[in-house]
């Protein structure tokens, strides 16, 4: 497993969702901003407490999650 030292999980912050360095900024927010066309510089301007490495690791974490194997359950015939 890849090491994600900037991704934190705390049940008292955003319900335990993947966040950046214990802040209330979720990985999903960052991935969503990138997916909708924001550049890293625009994200850093909008969220000055983030670092470029936070964005990079958020994308790496999302890519890692997308590599997971999914085995759909077959529904039993009624």
Structural description of this entry:
The chain has helices at residues 27-35, 40-46, 52-66; strands spanning 7-8, 19-20. It is mostly helical. α1 crosses α3 (52-66). The N and C termini lie far apart (40 Å).
Which descriptor suits the 3D outline? globular
CATH architecture: Orthogonal Bundle
What count of structural domains?
Answer: 1
Strand-residue fraction?
A: 5-15%
CATH topology: the name is Arc Repressor Mutant, subunit A
Helix run count: 3
- Level of helix content? 25-40%
What's the alpha carbon Rg, rounded to whole Å?
Answer: 15 Å
What labels would you give this structure?
Arc Repressor Mutant, subunit A; two-stranded antiparallel ribbon; globular
Gist of the model:
This protein is mostly helical and 78 residues long. It contains 3 helices and 2 strands; from the N terminus they run E-E-H-H-H. The protein has helices spanning 27-35, 40-46, 52-66; strands at 7-8, 19-20.
SSE map:
Elements: E1 7-8, E2 19-20, H1 27-35, H2 40-46, H3 52-66
Antiparallel strand pairs: 1-2
Helix pairs in contact: 1-3
């Amino acid at each position: 497993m890849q090491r994600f030292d900037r991704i934190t999980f705390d049940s008292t912050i955003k319900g335990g969702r993947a966040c950046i360095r214990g802040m209330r900024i979720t990985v999903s927010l960052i991935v969503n901003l990138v997916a909708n066309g924001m550049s890293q510089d625009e994200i850093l301007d909008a969220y000055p407490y983030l670092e470029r490495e936070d964005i990079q690791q958020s994308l790496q974490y999302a890519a890692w999650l997308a590599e997971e194997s999914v085995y759909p359950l077959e529904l039993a015939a009624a």
